[in-house]
Amino acid sequence: MRLPVLRAGWMTQTFVHWPFRPEAVQALLPGELEVDEYDGGAWVGLTPFVMADVRLPGVPAALPGLPTFAETNLRTYVRHRDGRDGIWFLSIEVAFPPMLAARAIGAPYNLGTLSVSADGGTLSYTGSRWSGDASYRLHVRRGDPIEPTERDVWLTSRWRAYTRRLGMLWETPVEHEPWPLARATVDVLEETVTTAAGLEEAPLDEPVVHFSEGVRHVRLGLTMPCVSRRAGRPS
Questions:
Q1: DSSP 156
Q2: Which residues pair with 74 in a beta bridge?
Q3: In a structure prediction context, what are the per-residue pLDDT tens digits for the chain, which is 235 residues long?
Q4: 4: nearest Cα among 41, 60, 55
Q5: DSSP secondary structure, 211-234, as one string
Q6: Which fold is adopted by the domain 6-225?
Q7: Closest Cα partner for 20 from 213, 229, 207, 228?
Q8: 3-class SS at 167?
Q9: From CA 151, how far away is CA 165, in angstroms rounded?
Q10: Which 3 state secondary structure label does DSSP give 24?
Q11: How far apart are CA 169 and CA 226, in angstroms?
């Protein structure tokens, strides 16, 4: 990425992933995107974290007063019809009102009261949307670091986010260092964000859970209309 438009750190992140029937998730996607399957399932991830030191390019991360706030994504993995993979956000909960500006390109941000805390090896995440009844409570115990498997990388490493607004598909490129992943065990998980997003059926299996201390060098590129690499035209 030659010219990032925003820099940040994504810290204290937990990934909780469930496999669902591909047809159930496909029904929530725009027509230009298809579910990206792994082992026959469409994977949906609940990913709470801390968005740290949000800044423009050239601003040092050590500058006092940079915005740091909790955010939680509900996301799935997709492919554009030209074959490029990426993330589709089913919902985004955030505790920082300026992030609502991203609704302009279709990012589904919802304001809420969110918290992230640590007590020894236990991480606690809670969130409650200000509008509606979507909420979550997640307690996980971090485990030992792991050498990521193919599935671990597939679930956590995507370099493009798709959104849809004004009849157009948009894409935002992302770069950062590899996630340092560790095992994690769920002690408490209560959530209504999946049903609020329209995913009402039960997952196919128990969740796959990872924890990461985070990545500090996230670079977000300019959001642009999505142009098919095959057709050369906006999607």
A1: H
A2: 46, 91
A3: 778 999 999 999 999 999 999 999 999 999 999 999 999 999 999 999 999 999 999 999 989 999 999 999 999 999 999 999 999 999 999 999 999 999 999 999 999 999 999 999 999 999 999 998 899 999 999 999 999 999 999 999 999 999 999 999 999 999 999 999 999 999 999 999 999 999 999 999 999 999 999 999 999 999 999 876 554 556 6
A4: 55
A5: EEEEEEEEEE---EE-B-TTT-SB
A6: Acetoacetate decarboxylase-like (2.40.400)
A7: 207
A8: coil
A9: 31
A10: helix
A11: 5
Count CB atoms within 10 A of the CB of residue 167: 6
Token reading at 14: 């937990």
Domain ranges of the chain: 6-225
**Do residues 78 and 35 make contact, with C-beta atoms less than 8 angstroms apart?**
yes
* Residue type at position 183: R
How far is it, in rounded angstroms, from Cα 185 to Cα 117?
16
